[in-house]
Specification:
alpha+beta, 5 strands, five-stranded mixed β-sheet, globular
Amino acid sequence: MSITKRESGSAIVFEAHNGGVVAFCRQGTCYVNPYCTSGVKSSVLSLMPKDVVLEELQTTSEFLELLAKK
């Protein structure tokens, strides 16, 4: 799956080819949507800044709540 990276305000957003947000980074942490496959996670890992911590959330609603606050 093709993942694109773009800046949105103070966050970095990773989107799938269909426009859905699969991960985002802000304040030194990168949050990954739990529905993502290992292939998508690998793509995000290769694109995310090296100085951030990866945080895998347990639920999609938790991810969406954080995304709304970005």
